[in-house]
Design a protein that fits this description.
The protein is mostly helical. The chain has 2 domains: 1-55, Arc Repressor Mutant, subunit A (Orthogonal Bundle); 57-95. Helices cover 82% and strands 0% of the residues.
Amino acid sequence: MSKRYSPQEKASIVMEFFSTRISTAELCRKYDIPPATFLDWKDKFLQGGKRALAGRGDATKNQTKEMGNLKQIIDEIKIANNILKKSLRRTKRRR
C-alpha cells in the first residue's frame, strides 16, 4: 500500500522539484510516487498552492456533517413556518 502524503508533504515535494535539477522520474522514485500522481500534484500546486493539494479529506467530512446539520435546521424552520401560517389563517378566520 502506498504512503499517504499530507498537503504539506505534497507541497514540499513539488517545491523540491522546482528548486533542484532533479527529474520527475528521479523524484518519483525517491518518494515512491507514481509519475501521474506527482504531475497531478504539480498542476494543482501551480493552480492553487498548498490549499489545492489538501484534497477532500477532513474538510469535506466536516462540511458534509455541517451541511446535514443545516438541512435539519432548515427542515425544523419549515415545520415551524407551516405551523405559524396555519395559526395565522385560523386567527384571520375568527375575525
